[in-house]
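Aim 2, interim progress: modelling of the iron/sulfur cluster-bound target.
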Amino acid sequence: MAEEKKKAAKAPKLADPVASSIDVASQEMIARSHVLGIETIFDRALNMKQCAIGVQGTCCKNCSMGPCRLPLPKAGIEGEDTRKGLCGATANTIAARNFVRMIAGGAAAHSDHGRCVAEVFLSAARKETDAYQIKDIDKLLAVAGHLDVATTIEVDGEELDRDIDEIAVEVGEVALNEWGKAEGEVLYLKRAPKARYEIWKKQGVLPRNIDREIVEIMHRTHMGVDQDYKNLMKQGTRACLADGWGGSMLATDLQDILFGTPYPLQSEANLGVMKADHVNIIIHGHEPVLSEMIIAVAQSQEMIDYTKSKGAAGIQLSGICCTANEMLQRHAVPLCGNFLQQELAIITGACDAMVVDIQCIMQNIANVANCFHTKLITTHPIAKMEQDNVIHIEFDEHHAVEDAKRIVKMAIDNFKNRDSEIMIPQYKEPVVAGFGVESTEYHLGGSFRGTYYTLNDNIINGRIRGVAGVVGCNNARTKHNRDHIAICKELIKNDVLVLTTGCTAIACATEGLLVPEAAAVYAGAGLAEVCETAGIPPILHLGSCVDNSRILLAATEVVKAGGLGNDISEWPVAGSAPEWMSEKAISIGHYFVASGVYTVFSNLPVTGAPVFENYICKEFEDIYGGMWATEEDPIKHAHMMIAHIDKKRKELGIDKARDRVMMDFAARQAL
Ligand code: SF4
Ligand code: MSK
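Predicted structure of the complex, ligand included:
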């Protein structure tokens, strides 16, 4: 008996499905994983504790004399803080070094993705591949303008349109140069409001090129280099601006030109989009360069016929993480799930192939796939897996169609190998997605004015209290999707229009919040009225992680439209990433802060260094107009954002308009 008790005590704990996720489809799959004896991240989160000092941000392992661990004493610090590492590094230095290294990791991930897109773009522009073509010429011309590429040419004193192919090649070359040019500054910085640009200039944080700022972080945080937390944060700010207003924004723009700028469309979301009688191909990761080709190939008659010949009714494509968002916003391909659902999609037993590229891919999906017939295919040269069951098919734009065919055929051939009972949770929700800067302008700005005037007007008259960007990941330390949904619902209930991307967007989709009808059920009266008039959901899906740059540009358009100050920091806007886990989220959060946005995260790894924490959470407001904040409780979190929005309304003198009295012409003119 005692022996049995000992054994039971040693056995790994199993996650309670209901305590792990608010999503019923996910709960069903977590329960199934236990029946089948398959371990998932939800179980591992119970059995592996977080390092308390790492959570505080004060563990340094930047040289082999460490790790040096500087926990905050339980009673706090009284008097002088004497904690230091072997070399003398203070808690502030260690926490700041760790923080900016996270920015470097995140900025590198976004921007290296952007570089790959720029390379494919240039290949397509030079006609080295016929797999990709320029789809959005208007956007190409707009981007050419931002990159100082001429769109006209003077011939015999006459101004003529320049050849589109020529423009495309030059745009590709100039864009690619942004990663490593020897002189100047990142060109897109000038797209920010003038007042914002001047703040960056005054602070000396204008990034020179994208790669350099990331490399410089690694240099400065090497043992014995930068030991001033304020100076370290200057470099962190440079690097994240190079991400948000550089690598990420270029990735979004070039993807739109190549694959089409998103416009609203309808689809479905959650594990229930998989079909038992279809070949299910799930694409997971971040780069649409791969998924675009798979979509094209999967829709070809050749593959449809081949599928039928193998006894399947068709091919069901769906996505996980940001590839899901990319495929949804341009092709209405359904969302299978977000970050914490990647193992669960395989546990349905119906996933014939999971095709992955880069970022947010858990190595354990190889172990889960090994329990089923699922083919797990890696496609990117920088992202392979060590497990034997993983197949690597390197995807290259020069033979993209052939690569995509090989992958799709492999999935179809695998349909007959299904060896376990299929159990697809029968839950899915309709979703309306595809809101970019352009389509938001159309829906909320009024096409004849071509600006965000109507949105501004509704903010000024108080129907819309303010705007919030709620973005980011899932985190196995938090109940799956709980905080995304609680915060978004609280914000829209209080008339705050929500813009969302990444895994938050997928969470909102699976909860049924991304349809116009959700406004009548969940939004406050003012926001609901605007949504009903414009025919839009109260939460707008703006795409993937790199598409957070769309939020920056939408914020800039609001400033340009007038009536809400001269800078992003002046109008009622706030940011949030309640379930963040990725370094990319820190880079995104910090470029929001440095762009003037009050940004709330559930937590930040800075609590072990209170002076540094105070610097980025309080003193930053005086420098950049935006600052960080933390709050774990989702309702309090939302109300911190609302309080900031109200503070900005008051500063603008539009707080009285919250009673939503219709304004006459004279009142509007006065504003
Ligand atoms: Fe310790 Fe300093 Fe080395 Fe960090 S750099 S591990 S604080 S000795
Ligand atoms: S996928 S970075 S878990 S949002 Fe972009 Fe989701 Fe976060 Fe990855």
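The two ends are 79 Å apart (CA to CA). The pocket of iron/sulfur cluster (ligand 1) is lined by residues 60-63, 65-68, 85-87, 89, 94, 223 (CB under 6 Å).
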